Amino acid sequence: MLASRDRHADRVVPPSGFTAQLTLFAAAAMAFLAVFALALSLASGRLAARWGDELARSATIRITAPQDQQSAQVEAALRILETTKGVRTARALTDAEQQALLAPWFGADLALDTLPVPRLIEVIEDADGMDPAGLRLRLAAEVPGAVLDDHSRWRAPLVSAASRLRTLGWTSTLLIAAVMAAMVTLAANAALAANAQVISVLRLVGATDAYIAQAFIRRFTIRTLIGASAGMALGMVAVLFMPGGNDETATFLTGLGFQGWHWITPLLVPPLAALVAFLATRMAARRTLETLT
Amino acid sequence: MIELENVAYSYGGGELLSDISLKLAAGSFHFLTGPSGAGKTTLMKLCYGALSPTSGTLRLFDKDVHTLDRDEIAQIRRRVGVVHQDCQFLDHLPVKENIALPLHVSDRSNEAETGDIDDLMHWVGLTDRAAALPPELSGGERQRAALARAVIMSPDVVLADEPTGNVDWDMSQRLLRLLIELNRMGKTVLVATHDLSLIRATKSQVQARVLRIANRRIQLAGADL
Ligand SMILES: Nc1ncnc2c1ncn2[C@@H]1O[C@H](COP(=O)(O)OP(=O)(O)O)[C@@H](O)[C@H]1O
Ligand SMILES: [Mg+2]
């Protein structure tokens, strides 16, 4: 349909400066926004998955007890964990690890045994997950100094916020596509109306609807493709230069961007935009032409 | 070629044309006359499928127009050359390309490269104006360009609606001669005009039949014009 033998079909519609510029601009702006919406969706999707995954699979037990009972209580807690359903591994953190955790607050040369620091047990759950309430009851009965922190209190709202954000991101992407379709439809309708005489001359000399529509379709598809490519390029540059950091401390804001194969997704924006323009113009042209003789 | 059987047409109010039966046989030459507003243009439009009869049967090239889809109408337009009352062009393309337009839209672009189009431009006397844009043409030049465009596909039928509408007497004689030549080449020609002196002036050159629209009906006018 867009082959070059139809160059003449292109020429039958007079060039239109201003609407062409507007279409280019709108396509570029929409593509730019689409890149951000995609980055938002993918990044929040990533976060939701990571938080949901990693945090849900780990829990910590803190044992606060007089110095002489501490190791006995740790032993007792580990024994309980061994027989708890849904627990894959459980181990007490070593002194070195505890020291590393506390170093940011108390300095590296802290002597653990001089302070009443609680002992930490790291619990890794298996795929089924454990029942935190049941475990708390058992710990309360046998290990009075144990407190189970399963992260879920603060994790749950974060995970649901991240997945809500992902849904919003995808909704925005769809809305952007819909606005693009609406914009192209309006521009195409305006072009069809402005070229009523051209269309009636073409009908009179025996042009089929497909031939007439093609001149408009080609134009709007190519314009949208060019505009969207420029917008996408700008959007990708903007995302690329977002201050970031992909280490463990990456928060949501610094993690807003593309990772790995996700960098391919913005490249799909221009062809998809062109496809939307193609379909929108074709529908607009069909509707208009069918009312003519 | 074109056959009307008890055709009636109305734009929505009362009937403008009623009970029209008419047959344009291959190679015939007809004038269509009648006062302004009688429905000459309307009848022309019926003949190239721009309008569909509100009742009766209209056959174009042996096909009932009611059964034709839009693409088939487009095919019929390639066999019927139309010179409109107010001829319209693609104003941004030069005259020569406008004349070749029917070839382009029907996928015969390669024929636009041959010398035929130059012969045709010469025949209508527009060789010098080939590169001009349509808005730069005079009334007579527009009519001749429209005629050239109407015949470039070598159609079986040529319909000319007031081809001499806004040109002077000499030019209208010239246009008529071109139409008569087309008829001698075997084309079926139908010319609508309200100008009876034009019809009288051509009587000697062609075996023409004169149809007159009066009181919504069509009559074959006698020789007593
Ligand atoms: N598209 C239209 N809608 C409604 N009425 C029309 C339309 N075209 C023409 N008419 C009316 O039909 C009548 C015949 O018009 P027309 O066929 O152009 O006559 P003629 O060509 O003989 O002057 C006129 O009264 C005109 O006002
Ligand atoms: Mg008329």
Key phrases:
heterodimer; A: 293 residues; alpha+beta; rod-shaped; B: 225 residues; alpha/beta; Rossmann fold; 2 domains; 6-stranded mixed β-sheet; 24% strand; globular; binds adenosine-5'-diphosphate; binds magnesium ion
Please, could you describe this protein's structure?
The complex is a heterodimer of chains A (293) and B (225). Chain A is rod-shaped. In chain A, helix 2 crosses helix 8 and helix 8 runs antiparallel to helix 9. Chain A folds into two domains: 7-52 and 156-291, no CATH class; 65-144, no CATH class. Chain A contains nine helices and four strands; from the N terminus they run ααβαβαβαβαααα. Chain A is an alpha+beta fold. Chain A has helices at residues 7-11, 17-56, 67-82, 95-106, 132-142, 152-194, 196-204, 209-240, 269-290, and strands at 58-63, 87-92, 119-125, 146-149. In chain A, strands 2-3-1-4 form a four-stranded antiparallel sheet. Chain B is an alpha/beta fold and 225 residues long. Chain B folds into two domains: 1-79 and 157-225, P-loop containing nucleotide triphosphate hydrolases (Rossmann fold, 3-Layer(aba) Sandwich), CATH 3.40.50.300; 87-154, no CATH class. Chain B contains seven helices and ten strands. In chain B, the strands form two sheets. In chain B, strands 6-7-8-3-9-10 form a six-stranded mixed sheet, with helices on both faces. Chain B has a four-stranded antiparallel sheet with strand order 2-1-4-5, with helices on one face. In chain B, helix 3 (95-105) packs parallel to helix 5 (139-151). The mean pLDDT of chain B is 90. The chains are: A alpha+beta (293), B alpha/beta (225). The interface between A and B is medium-sized, with 23 and 29 residues. The complex binds adenosine-5'-diphosphate and magnesium ion (MG). The site of adenosine-5'-diphosphate has 10 residues of chain B, from helix 1.
**Sheet with most strands: strand arrangement of chain B:** 6-7-8-3-9-10
Count of DSSP-assigned helices of chain B: 7
Q: Helix coverage percent of residues of chain B?
A: 25-40%
| Strands of chain B, count | 10
Average pLDDT reading of chain B: 90
CATH superfamily of the largest domain in chain B: P-loop containing nucleotide triphosphate hydrolases
Largest sheet of chain B: 6 strands, mixed
Termini of chain B, distance in Å? 27 Å
Number of domains of chain B: 2
The small molecules bound here are: adenosine-5'-diphosphate, magnesium ion
What percent of the residues of chain A sit in helical stretches (DSSP H or I)? 55-70%
Residue fraction in strands of chain B:
15-25%
